[in-house]
Specification:
144 residues; two-stranded antiparallel sheet; 7 helices
């Protein structure tokens, strides 16, 4: 069964509770990044773009646009499609990043190579839709 970003997002909301859309976007990003490192494959197939506010999954954004606070079940995803290994990765991401606020997470992504490299040629705050590649994420996060 194919895992979608909405499935990951709903799992995060179920485990962690209501949060801002910005924080959820960053946690989904880090779940993808660490899944690439620890499981050597993508958690979900949707692309992640390097927006001015940090990494964003456009498919998620299109569903939550206009909503600041997101609650468990918001996306109506299917968390049963997540494997135990994938849930373990997400749980570890939540243990490390889950207590951080949205701005802290956004600031952190701005310091890291995958987002910075995808933003080359853009000024701070400038809109952009460059894709953050799975390869750049795997390479960077496996090195730290």
């Amino acid at each position: 069964m194919t895992v979608r970003a909405i499935d990951v997002a709903d799992y995060i909301l179920q485990k962690h509770g209501t949060m801002s859309a910005m924080k959820l976007q960053k946690l989904v990003y880090y779940a993808q990044a660490w899944h690439l490192v620890w499981e050597d494959k993508e958690l979900f197939a949707e692309e992640i773009q390097a927006w001015a506010s940090g990494p964003v999954v456009p498919d998620l954004y299109n569903r939550h646009h206009g909503s600041f606070s997101l609650s468990p079940g918001f996306f109506k995803g299917d968390i049963s499609c997540l494997t135990d290994k994938s849930k373990d990765v997400i749980d570890r991401v939540l243990k490390f990043y889950g207590n951080k606020d949205a701005q802290w997470l956004s600031d952190l992504t701005h310091l890291e190579e995958p987002w910075k490299n995808a933003r080359i040629g853009l000024t701070d705050g400038e809109r952009g839709s460059s894709v953050i590649s799975a390869e750049s994420m795997a390479e960077y996060y496996s090195s730290i």
